[in-house]
Amino acid sequence: MIGVLERIRKPNDIKNIRETDYARLAEEIREFLIDHVSRTGGHLASNLGVVELTMALHLVLDFPKDKLIWDVGHQCYVHKLLTGRASGFDTLRRHGGMSGFPKRAESNTDLFDTGHSSTSISEACGLVKARELTGGKEKIFAVIGDGAMTGGLAYEGLNNAGQLKSNLVIVLNDNKMSISENVGGMANYLGKIRTSSRYEDLKDDVTSTLERIPGIGSGLVRQLRRSKDTLKKFMIPGNYFEELNITYIGPIDGHNVGQMYEAFLAASRKNGAVLVHVITKKGKGYDCAEHDPKQFHGVDAFDIETGKSLNEKSQLTYTDIFSRSLIELAAKHRNIVAITAAMPGGTGLSEFQRQYPRRFFDVGIAEEHAVSFAAGLAAGGYHPVFAVYSTFLQRAYDQILHDVCLNRFPVTFAVDRAGIVGSDGETHQGIFDISYLSSIPGLTVMAPKDGGELRQMLEFAVTLPRPTAIRYPRGIAGREAEGSVAPVVYGECEWLSREGRIVLLAVGSMVQTAQHAAGLLAGDGIAAAVANVRFVSPEDVEMLRHASGFELVVTLEENVARGGFGERAAAWLLSHGFRGRFLNICLPDRFIEHGTQEELRRAYGLDAESAAEKIRMLLAEL
Questions:
Q1: Count of other CB atoms within 10 angstroms of residue 512
Q2: Which of 67, 103, 282, 449 is labelled catalytic?
Q3: What is the dihedral of CA 454, 356, 395, 153, to 10 degrees?
C-alpha cells in the first residue's frame, strides 16, 4: 500500500490528500524525519514540532504564487517534503546535497537563503509593498518562532507591519524555546497568553449568552462589535500586538490542522497585518526529543532507540576548554561576568551559569543588545566575556565599533565557530570575522593554534584594559590542549621554526596545517620556517620584517581574502620594499556551501596537501 507521504511529489499535492488522512500524513512525516536525520544529522526537534503547522500552511497557500517565509529556516524540512523534495533527504547537509535551510536554488517555493533569526517580518513587509506596487493578489505569510521574537529586528518589522493597509499574515510559532528556554519580557508575556482562556472561544460564549437576553441582548452585541477592543482588552489585558495595530488571533493548537487552516484562511482575508499565535511542542512525536528539545535542536547522527549520538567525542573541543578556563578565571577575578545570546549550551556557558548564576546573563537572540549590554557592564566596573558564534557576532558590528571599541571598554569577545563550520552552510560559516574585526581601531584580535593557547589567551584577555576578541574554530582542540604553551606577549607571534627558503605565517586553526605542509615540503628538500601569528590585530611588525627576508612568504587563514590577514600582510610587505613572492592561502571572496569541515577544506585548498602543492608550483616558477 502506498503511503500518504509518497503521494506528495510536487508543491500543492497535499490538497489532493483526504482530510481523514491528515493524521496519518503527519505520522509518516515524523517517521521519515526521525529516520533520515538519525543518519545525516540536522535540526530535528524544531521540525517535529511544526509538522501540522506546515501542513495547514500548505493547505491554505498556492505555491509558487503565494509566498511563505521561514524565519531562521532550520524548521523547513517539512516544507521541503511537502514541495516534493523527499528524495533529497539522503544527502541532507552533505557536500553537494540538499541544504538544511531554505535554498532558492533548490525550489521556487524557498524565497530566501536564510539561517539567522528575526528577519522574516521585515522581509514579508517588503513583499507586501512589492505586491501593492505591482497590483498582485498573492497571499504572504511569515512564520516566526517565539525565540526569534527576542531579536530587535522582529520589533522593527512589527512596528512597520502595523502600518500596512493590505494583508500580511504573521504566524507566531510558540514552543517556549529557541535553542534553549526563552528568556525575557516577551517570553513572560506569551506565557500569560498561553495560560489565559482563549479569547476567541470566550468571545463566542459571551456573544451567545448576551443574544439570549430578551429585548436588549442583540443591542449589547452590536455595541460590543462596534468597540471590538473593549472585550479583547478585558480578556487579554494590554494586548501588545493589537496596540501596534496588528490583529491578534489565538492562541491556537499548533497540532490541530483543522483549527489552523480555518484561522489562516480567516487571517488571509483581513486588511492589514494579522498575527496568528499557534502553540506547538518542540520535538513532538519522538520521546527523546520531547524530553530534551535542547539536545535535539541540532544533532549529529544518532541511535533512534536511545537517542544517543553515534559520534561521541572523546577529546576536548575548543568550546570545552573555553568553558573550563572561564570558570577557573572567574574564581580568581570577581569582576568577570559572562553573556550569551540564547546559546549557553552551544557556547560552553551552561556550567558557568550553574556555578555563577548572578554573574551569568542570557539576553535571548539579541546579539546587538548583548554587545551594548556588555559595554554597560564594563562601564560599571566589570569585565564581560561575550561568548558567541562568529556568524552571529556579524549582526552586532556597529555595537562592537561604536559602543565598545570607541569607548575602549574592556570587553572580551569569545568568537566560537570561527572559520569553516560545516554542514549548516553559507549562513553559518565563520569566514568573515578576521575582516570585520581587524578593521576596528583599538580591538585586539587573537587566534590560538590549540586549546592550551586558547586558555592562555583568555587569561591574557581578561586582564587587558581594552577590548579583545579571541577567534577559535569548531572541533577538537588539538594535541597540545593540556600541554604547556609559550607565554602570550602582547602583539607578538610565536616562531615554531625560523630557518628555510620560505616562511609560512599561519593564523589559528591553520597552524597545524602549516606545520604539516612544512613536513611535506621537507620531504622534497624544501625547508620552511613556520610562525604562529597569534595576533591578527595589531600585526607583529617584527614578524613581518623577518618574513621579508625569505624568497616566498605564505599566509594561511580560514577567512575570505578581502580584509583578511593575508591581504594586510601583503600590504605591509609591499609598502616596506619586499621583492620576493607572496602566496595567500585562504578562502575565496564568496559564500561557502555546506559540507563537512574536511570536505570543504580540501575543496578550497586549505588542507596541508593542497597548500604544499600550491607552494611547489610557485617555487617551480622562481
A1: 17
A2: 282
A3: 170
Catalytic residue (choose from 395, 455, 474, 601) = 395
Whether 80 sits among the annotated catalytic residues: the reply is no
Closest listed residue to residue 392, CA positions, set 374, 415, 408, 412:
415
- pLDDT score, position 315: 87
Q: What is the pLDDT of residues 353-411, one digit of tens each?
A: 999 999 999 999 999 999 999 999 999 999 999 999 999 999 999 999 999 999 999 99
Q: What was the pLDDT predicted at 192?
A: 60
Cβ–Cβ under 8 Å, residues 82 and 54: yes
Q: Is 291 helix (H, G, I), strand (E, B) or coil?
A: helix
Residue 102 makes CB contacts below 8 A (sequence gap 6+) with 70, 73, 76, 79, 110, 111, 112, 113, 114
Cβ atoms of 477 and 316 closer than 8 Å: yes
Pick the catalytic residue: 28, 52, 123, 367? 367
Among residues 513, 494, 523, 491, the alpha carbon closest in space to that of 585 is found at 513
Per-residue b/e over 527-563, b at no fewer than 16 CB within 10 Å?
ebbbbbbbbbbebbeebbebbbebebbbbbbbbbbeb
Cα gap 290→313, rounded to integer Å: 24
Determine the average pLDDT of the residues in 87-92: 93
Residue in 132, 124, 203 with CA at minimum distance from that of residue 166: 132
Residue 63 burial by CB count (10 A; 0-12/13-18/19+): exposed, middle or buried?
A: middle
SS3 labels along 197-244? CCHHHHHHHHHHHHHCCCCCHHHHHHHHHHCHHHHHHHHCCCCHHHHC
| pTM for this model (two decimals) | 0.87
Furthest CA-CA distance within the chain: 105
Residue 621: active-site member: no
**What does the DSSP 8-state code read for residue 188?**
H
CB atoms within 10 A of CB 309: 14
What are the grid coordinates assigned to 142, written together?
511569515
CA dist., res. 7 & res. 312, Å (int): 37
362 pairs with which residues across the strands?
A: 340
pLDDT per position as a tens digit, 292-345? 888 888 888 988 989 888 876 678 999 999 999 999 999 999 999 999 999 999
- Would residue 395 show up in a list of annotated catalytic residues for this protein? yes
Within 13 Å and on the Cβ side, how many CA atoms surround 516?
13
- Which whole-number Å values give the CA distances from 622 to 197, 307, 466, 554, 618, in the listed order? 79, 57, 44, 15, 7
d(CA 147, CA 432) in angstroms, rounded, equals: 25
Compute the distance between CA of residue 102 and CA of residue 319 in angstroms, rounded to an integer.
Answer: 28
Is the pLDDT assigned to residue 227 strictly greater than 80? no
User: Whole-angstrom Cα distance, residue 486 to residue 22?
Assistant: 63
Q: What phi, psi does 577 have (nearest 5°)?
A: 85, 15
Q: Give the CA distances from residue 9 to residues 27, 80, 85, 499, in Å, rounded to whole numbers and listed in that order.
A: 18, 10, 7, 63
**Beta carbons within 8 Å of 205's beta carbon, 6+ residues apart:** none
Nearest to 52 by CA among 227, 215, 280, 268: 280
Cell of 18: 483526504
